[in-house]
Amino acid sequence: MNYHVGVISGDGIGPEIVNEAKKVLDKIGEKYGHTFEYEEILMGGCSIDATGVPLTDHAIEQAKAADAVLMGSIGGNTSTSPWYRLEPSLRPEAGLLKLRKSLNLFANLRPAYLYEELKAACPLRDEIIGEGFDMVIMRELTGGLYFGERKTEEVNGKLTATDTLTYSEDEIRRIAVKGFDIAMKRRKKVTSVDKANVLDSSRLWRKVVEEVAKDYPEVSYEHMLVDNCAMQLVNNPAQFDVILTENMFGDILSDEASMVTGSIGMLSSASMNDTKSGLYEPSHGSAPDIAGQDIANPIATILSAAMMLRYSFDLDKEADAVEAAVKQVLKDGYRTVDIMPKETEKKSAFTQVGCKKMGDLIAERV
Ligand code: IPM
Ligand code: MG
């Protein structure tokens, strides 16, 4: 088959890591008889530099027309980059939010998985790690605080800022369905995370999740308050299978979950709507401090490409091959600097490689 892939290389380390993912996709194509055609789409700081805005209408059309979109990362250093002196709606991140909304990407799937080979990088104590953990966060991505009305105004002579958190029952239902669907393919457990002891939006969330749960008698589910969830993630991460939550809580918890694996450079993500298309990107940011040095870890982007093969193109065998190649490269002792052990005495068992070399090694093993 021929697949038309929109590519948002973006800013910082984005272009480097995307190149490696393309390398691996091309190898898959060669081996399994597919062709991947890439069309570059401008978004983020590079789009601001070229067009004055972080995402043009043309870019949105390109993304809509693609079979799926693969993304690196966007944004720069928020204290030093001139992009952050622009008004908020013109900054790099506004492009990403606009793209999510324009493509109706309401479901964001972020796996957090402890690689056996990377146990040493996990910041948790051995007795907490136990047999390891393997969870996914299903984050609502087009509602809540991110997209509610916001304003800053003067009230009684004081600057006052307001952000609004709104969810309709339909918005909650469709993400809950996605959460329970994915649980059916996994260990059949959903932890729905909210702040129902304080927020109305969370009380509605709970009610709708309970309704949806009735259609999934095989899935066990529980509600958990978000502050407790933040604690449980470092106390007993193995208890989680699918964490289902709203936009802002999911933003925060997914960073925490990925840090707990010790390897944010390894974690992929998929943003999906009700069509086959989707946006696939690493969970980490654009790391402008290490851009252009060929030291970034391309694995999260390569694994995002694997998710694209699996979820948008139904190429399970090919996705398995990419994931197996990543595992093999780790088993063979290759590490980018972020996942090298920190202790000098442990380093000798591994070979430190750069971004390009890591891409080559994974492509070779496909
Ligand atoms: C993420 C990022 C984005 C978000 C930023 C870049 C707007 O942190 O994808 O988690 O908050 O959703
Ligand atoms: Mg985030």
| Separation, N- and C-terminal Cα atoms | 18 Å
Order of helices and strands: EHEHHEHEHEEEHEHEHEHEEHHEHEH
Q: What is the CATH level 1 assignment of the largest domain?
A: Alpha Beta
Biggest beta-sheet profile: 10 strands, mixed
Outline:
globular
How many E strands?
14
CATH-wise, what's the superfamily of the largest domain? Isopropylmalate Dehydrogenase
User: Ions, cofactors, ligands: which are bound?
Assistant: 3-isopropylmalic acid, magnesium ion
Strand content: 15-25%
Strand line-up of the largest beta sheet: 2-1-3-12-11-4-5-10-8-9
Query: What is the CATH topology assignment of the largest domain?
Result: Isopropylmalate Dehydrogenase
Helix content: 40-55%
Radius of gyration: 20 Å
CATH architect. name of the largest domain: 3-Layer(aba) Sandwich
Category from helices, strands and their pairing? alpha/beta
Q: Give the averaged pLDDT, no decimals.
A: 96
Helix tally equals 13
Uncertain residue segments = none
Number of domains: 2
Features:
alpha/beta, Isopropylmalate Dehydrogenase, 2 domains, ten-stranded mixed β-sheet, 13 helices, 14 strands, globular, binds 3-isopropylmalic acid, binds magnesium ion
Which helices and strands occur, and which strands form pairs?
Layout lengths: L1 E9 L3 H19 L2 E6 L4 H7 L5 H9 L2 E6 L18 H11 L4 E7 L12 H4 L4 E7 L9 E6 L2 E6 L5 H16 L4 E6 L5 H14 L6 E6 H10 L6 E4 L1 H14 L7 E5 L5 E5 L16 H14 L3 H16 L2 E2 L8 H4 L3 E2 L2 H11 L1
Parallel strand pairs: 1-2, 1-3, 3-12, 5-10, 8-9, 8-10, 13-14
Antiparallel strand pairs: 4-5, 4-11, 6-7, 11-12
3-isopropylmalic acid (IPM) binds next to helix 4.
